[in-house]
Structures are given as C-alpha cells and as structure tokens.
Amino acid sequence: MRNPIEAIKNFFSKGATMNTEKVDWFRDEIKKTRYRDRISRVEDIDDYLRRNHKVLQIPSFQYKEHTFEPTRLVLQTLRSIIKFHSSYICGTPCSITGDKEFVSLLNTIYKRGGYTKTDLEIAKDLITYGDTFEYVYLDGDKIKSKLIRNKDSYPLYDSFGNYTHFVEYWKDEDTRADHYVVYYPEKVEIYENSTLIDTKPNLTGLPIWYSAMDKSKYDKFGDPFPLDLMGIMDTIESLLSKLDTAVLTLSLSPIGIISGQRFDSSIPRDMVGAVLNIDEGGSFSWANAQMDRESIKLELDYVIQQFYAIACVPASIMGQSNVANVSETSITMLYQQCDNFARQYIASMKEGFEKRLEYIRKLMEYNGQTVSDEVFDSVNFSFNVARPVDNAADMANMEIQYNCGAISKQTIIDRSPYTTDTALELKRIEDEAKVNGESEEETDDPLEIVTSTKTEEVIIDDKAD
Questions:
Q1: Residues whose CB falls within 8 Å of the CB of residue 412, separated by 6 or more in sequence, listed in order
Q2: pLDDT per residue over 157-188, tens digit each?
C-alpha cells in the first residue's frame, strides 16, 4: 500500500527540482510560471516604451457627418526618466580604488573591454526591468562582458532559492528555429531546437545576476520600476487627449443650432464668418461647452505632482519649475529623492561588480597572472552620481584637510570629479616631481636661489609674529 504522507510530499514537491538528466530538461524548466511571469512583464514594458500606450485604444466617432479621429497623445516621459536615473548613477564612469598597480591594470581591462558603456547599460536595464544579466568571457587577450537581453534570459533556481543554471532562449524570426544557450557553472551548451550544436568550457561561471532590491511576486526577481509609473502616465495621457479633443470639437469647431426654420441644405462644417438669413422668430447659436478650467487644472497638477514624486525626479529637471539662484543646500534637498532612489540600485550594482571582479581574477589567473587575496580585497568601487555640486567648494575643503594632514593626496584624487584613474594620476604626479627635481638641480641662477631664500624667510617671520 502506498504511503499517503509520501504521496503528499511528492505532490507538493513536483516541479520543485530540476531533472537535468533529461536531454532537453531546460525546455520544460523555462515554461514554469515564475519565469513566464517575468518575461510577460518584460514584454509589457518593451511594448510601452515602443509607444504602444493605452491611449491609442480611444475609438473614433462621428462628428458633423464625418468620422472624427480624436487626439491620442502619447508621451514618452517614462523613457526620459529612465535615461535620467541611469545617467545619474553611471553617467560618470565608476571609480576604482585600491592597490595602485592592480587598479591600473583593472582600468586598462575596463578601457579595452568597453566597460564604461557596459555599466551604463546595466544601470538602464536594471532600472527598466528590475534584473540585468552579464556574462564575463575571454575574447582573445581581452576580457569582455556580454549583456543578455532580458526577454531572452531565464535564471534558473531550485526550491531553496539557489541560482544553479541560466538559459538564454530566443526564436529566429526567419527560420522559426528555437535557440538555447544553457550555462552550467563549468560549461556552456548550445542547442538548436533539441539538437546539441556545440559545447564550450565556462571559464568564469554563471552570468552575473543583478537584481533590484524591490522584489516582484516571486522573491528572486526584481520589481520593474516603470510599472509604478505606467498607470499614472496613462491617466495623464487620457486627460490631455480628452481635453484636446474637447477643445477641437466643442470650442474651435462647435455644432451650429438653428431654431424656427429648417435648412434643406447642409452647412459647411468648416464655415467661419458666413452670414445666414433666418426668418423672423428664428435663431442661430453654437452648441459649445463651458469647461471648468479650475477643476481640470487641479486634477492635472495633482496627477503630475504624484508622477514626479513616484519617479523620484525633481520637477525642475523636466521643466516644471524654476530653479534660478538655488543654493547648494537647496540643490541637495532637491536631489534627496534621487539619491535615495540611486542608493538602492548602486548597492545591487556594487554587489554585481564585485562578482565581476572575481570573474576577472579567474581569467587573469587563467592567463598566468596571479592576484593575491590582500591585493584583491583592497579594491573598492565608488559611484560618482551626477548631482549638481559646487566642485570648487569641495576641492577647497579637501585642500584644507590636506594642509592639516587629515587627508592623503590619493584620497583627494579618488574624490575629485576631474579624475577617474587614480593610479595613472599618481604616476603622472611622480613623473612630474622627478622632472621638477632634476630641473632644480640643474639651475645655477643665483638670483633664483636668493629669491627662494627670501620668500622662505618672510614666511618664517610671519609665523613667528
């Protein structure tokens, strides 16, 4: 007799584990609800960003015996907000600090691999979809990264939430063939339909999974930020479209009403300034609407205010207010929401960058370059957000600290908005110091020596006083 307890366990655990022994196990795995739910959200966001908005569904209607096409106003403000936040986080390249020689080598790898653009794309996709996937690989002697399209990405995890495999799937639009790239921790398999085409070693590991801190229905996936704004944007577009349609029909082209006499012929619908002869006792008037301007303005202002509040964007950025003669403190307060928004995504990206660094270390060791744990642990990533600041005041404050011995030259270079490669800048300073030292040794002008001595004596006298 079958044990009922075991039957219940088998029922509820069905589909919880992946049967990787089956040849095409991944085809059944990516059809699970949790993965299809994420792909559905990605496709909805893609459609919206491609201008497929709800306002386009407003139907046409008959007006003055003709088909009237109402206003269907599509606003791409959401795309501008995504660009603003991604540029705010990674518009200025991320600074790498740590061991001087290792940082210099990393900066070279980043430059050759085009990581400045890659980081900006990661920020954009993370904000747009809530998840981003990066695969680090070796291309000849270059270390590069490939960002996998969100709608093709299936990060697989087991019933304990462990990230175990990754599947990249797409359908060829011409041949209609299904393509699968299955990533294991130690290998990568390439399939066309159910046929294994190629197998390659995986030198790094599974693709890096960047995930937003706000989670969706399924805890492992990030919640896409645009979903909070799409509904409000639909309301704004609907209000503005209806308002424009009302102005065109009821204000600029109203329907004429004649009483006391019947006209056998029709009146031209675009008639302006014509004269009508009406019998005594008849009348002519326009059927126009008196709009409640204050109510319309109140609703629009409130909806737009909530839109920018949820978007975490200062209204002044989109031209909604005047910010002339604003102090440094006011700007800091103005961008407080942007900072809070960026801080969460920076935390997720920093975690992914550290994983990327581990993969880069693996590839360096594969090429015979060993990195010690002490040098590896010294590396840190600093994000330079694009908040308007008074750079002159910051530099002056750091100069005061440096003169007091409370800050090093390297820290000043790390914090400076004018430099991104600290190791290179320090090397240039050392080279300049050597050149200047050699120049001073070769100087034989006695007047220059006397002038230098007198200057030094004046400074000492001032200190004594």
A1: 398, 402
A2: 998 889 999 999 999 988 899 999 999 999 99
Here the tokens at position 245 are: 């349609």
Answer for the pair 184, 202: CB distance below 8 angstroms, yes or no. yes
The 10s digit of each residue's pLDDT in 185-196 is 999 999 998 899
Euclidean distance between CA atoms 187 and 201, whole angstroms:
4
Strand partners, 179: 170, 192
Can you say whether the dihedral through the CA atoms of 108, 113, 115, 117 is positive or negative?
positive
Picking from 260, 256, 257, the residue whose alpha carbon sits closest to that of residue 280 is 260
Extract the tokens encoding 422: 């600290």
Read off the tokens for 333: 């307060």
How far is it between the farthest Cα atoms of the chain?
114
Residue 24 main-chain phi, psi, to 5 deg: -110, 45
DSSP label at 59?
P
Type of residue found at 254: P
Question: Whole-model pTM?
Answer: 0.78
Distance CA 134, CA 350 (A): 13
